[in-house]
């Protein structure tokens, strides 16, 4: 899929941009959109092979060159090094998008404290490390630095079976608001984005606990359902526009905006409704099992691909959970191939 160019000249032309979690999914799409606006983009992520595939994907679709940096955002020194090297390579640093994160899906009865610690270390700690390393360079930007923090609607209200993720994203939201207030006197702006469900293919990268196959079924189906979820490329365009306009806050998808407003007006009612929704989700097993990622739950896409049509051919026996997953997550499965979320082979175009 080609990333559309914009008709007007962007004020991002010639700026240096760094995107963490930039090798796949939303981060990869944001990187491509920024490059289309004329930015010199550096992709940062933990996996070198994934970065290589992501950079090739973005270069093919934009005709631009991308720099890459292997970096675990939980490592403060590594983040500082990447920020410093990006600034040196491009003669400055003007735009930073803190996008790296993890998704853990399970009932709280199947979780331990370490799951919350991991979510906080990666999502919130990684965002803090990125923001704190970037801010001095952004203050020195002649164009006026821009910092973008990717939160979630899950940070605006607690989502059942996504509690560690919600807690960490709530902290990101508070960080974004506080940084915006404290950088107001400088030429730096902070934009905090709270997306709802998006078709990024992230269900393959998520971690599932409890009755993991059932958790995978509902999460992958819901996150790929039209109307409820949003096309990831359209979401990336909206986020880059918000960066251009230096907006303070952006909530994506009508469902996310409605949920945010409802929680602000009647939080107790929303909490009761969340409790009702939780009862519809898979109960925890009597005996705790091993957590599994989305690749394991989907069979790792090892059964075969129909690359021309962007469909996955799964030759395993179809249980009822798999039938539900297939019905609701066809678009998300296609997005996984488009946006470098799968393991084998290069990402496909559409």
Which terms summarize this structure?
Sc_DH/Rdtase_CS, Rossmann fold, 14 strands, disordered C terminus, three-stranded mixed sheet, Short-chain dehydrogenase, globular, disordered N terminus, oxidoreductase, 47% helix, oxidoreductase activity, 11 helices, seven-stranded parallel sheet, alpha/beta, 350 residues
Task: Explain what you see.
- With 350 residues, the protein is of the alpha/beta class.
- The chain has a domain at 16-202 and 226-266: NAD(P)-binding Rossmann-like Domain (Rossmann fold), CATH 3.40.50.720.
- The protein has helices at residues 25-36, 48-62, 76-90, 113-139, 163-182, 212-223, 232-244, 254-265, 267-280, 294-297, 320-338; strands spanning 16-20, 40-45, 67-70, 95-98, 104-105, 146-150, 189-194, 198-199, 207-208, 230-231, 249-251, 292-293, 305-306, 311-312.
- The strands form four sheets. Strands 3-2-1-4-6-7-11 form a seven-stranded parallel β-sheet, sandwiched between helices. Strands 5-9-12 form a three-stranded mixed β-sheet.
- A hairpin with a 4-residue loop joins strand 13 (305-306) and strand 14.
- Helix 1 (25-36) runs parallel beside helix 2 (48-62) and helix 1 crosses helix 7.
- The protein is globular and about 55 Å long.
- The model is unreliable at 1-7, 300-317 and 344-350 (pLDDT under 50).
- It holds the Pfam family adh_short.
- This is Short-chain dehydrogenase.
- It comes from Streptomyces mangrovisoli.
- Belongs to the short-chain dehydrogenases/reductases (SDR) family.
């Amino acid at each position: 899929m080609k990333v559309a160019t914009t008709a007007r000249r962007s004020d991002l032309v010639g700026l240096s941009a760094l995107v963490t979690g930039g090798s796949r999914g939303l981060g990869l799409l944001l990187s491509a959109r920024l490059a289309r606006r004329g930015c010199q983009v550096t992709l940062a992520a933990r996996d070198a092979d994934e970065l290589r595939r992501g950079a090739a994907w973005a270069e093919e679709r934009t005709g631009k060159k991308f720099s890459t940096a292997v970096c675990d955002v939980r490592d403060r020194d590594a983040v500082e090094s990447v920020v410093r090297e990006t600034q040196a390579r491009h003669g400055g640093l003007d735009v930073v998008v803190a996008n790296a994160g993890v998704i853990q899906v399970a009932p709280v009865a199947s979780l331990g404290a370490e799951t919350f610690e991991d979510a906080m270390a990666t999502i919130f700690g990684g965002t803090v490390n990125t923001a704190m390393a970037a801010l001095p360079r952004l203050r020195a930007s002649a164009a006026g630095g821009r910092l973008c923090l990717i939160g979630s609607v899950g940070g605006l209200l607690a989502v059942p079976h996504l509690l560690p993720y919600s807690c960490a994203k709530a902290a990101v939201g508070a960080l974004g608001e506080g940084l915006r207030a404290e950088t107001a006197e400088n030429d730096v702006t902070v934009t905090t984005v709270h997306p709802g469900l998006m078709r990024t293919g992230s269900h393959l990268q998520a971690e599932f606990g409890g009755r993991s196959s059932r958790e995978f079924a509902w999460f992958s189906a819901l996150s790929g359902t039209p109307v409820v979820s949003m096309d990831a490329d359209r979401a990336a365009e909206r986020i880059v526009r918000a960066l251009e306009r230096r907006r303070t806050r952006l909530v994506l998808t009508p469902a996310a905006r409605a949920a945010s407003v409802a929680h602000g007006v009647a939080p107790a009612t929303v909490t009761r409704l969340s409790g009702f929704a939780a009862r519809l989700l898979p109960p925890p097993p009597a005996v705790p099992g091993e957590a599994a990622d989305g690749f394991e739950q989907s069979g790792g896409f090892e059964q075969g691909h129909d690359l021309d049509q962007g469909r996955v051919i799964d030759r395993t026996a179809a249980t009822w959970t798999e039938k539900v997953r297939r019905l609701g997550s066809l678009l998300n499965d296609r997005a996984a191939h488009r946006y470098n979320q799968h393991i084998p082979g290069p990402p496909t175009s559409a």
